[in-house]
Amino acid sequence: GNDSKIIPNKNSPIRMDIIGDNFVEIVQVTDISETGAGIYVPHSFSGVDTSKQINAIVTLPGQNSFKTKGSIKAGKDSRHFTLEFSNLSTQGKKQISVYAQSMKK
Q: Which of 22, 38, 57, 60 could form a disulfide with 17 if both were Cys (CB 3.0 to 4.6 A apart)?
C-alpha cells in the first residue's frame, strides 16, 4: 500500500460527493491517499454526526467515479476535515494509484 498524500492540480480538481443520513455535500479534496482524503468545506459542516460512517463518491480527473465509505475527522479548522476511508475497494486503490502516477509526470 502507498500512503503518500497526493495534492491535486488546481486545474483538474478531485470531486468528492459526501452522502450522510440527511445531507449531500460536494467538497473540495485538498489531498488524497489510499487511507483517506483531506477535504475543504467552504461553509463548514453543520449537523454532521462524525461518529457515523458516511458514503462518498470520489471522481479523480479523467477516471470513472468510485464509491467508498469513511469517517469524518476534524481538521485544522472548521473548514478542513479528513475523510478516513474505511473499506476502500481494490478498484478505488487502483484508481488512486493510477492518479498518483499521472501526477508524477
A: 57
C-alpha 97/C-alpha 60 separation (Å) is: 11
CA distance 21 to 37: 20
Q: How many CB atoms lie within 10 A of CB 5?
A: 13
**Single-letter amino acid code for the residue at 16:** M
What tens digit of pLDDT does each residue of 1-56 get?
446 889 998 888 999 999 888 788 888 899 999 999 999 987 766 666 777 899 99
Please give the model's pTM, rounded to 2 decimal places.
Answer: 0.87
In whole angstroms, give the CA distance from residue 6 to residue 26. Answer: 19
C-alpha cell at 43: 461553509
* Residue 90 DSSP label: H
Average pLDDT over residues 50-63: 90
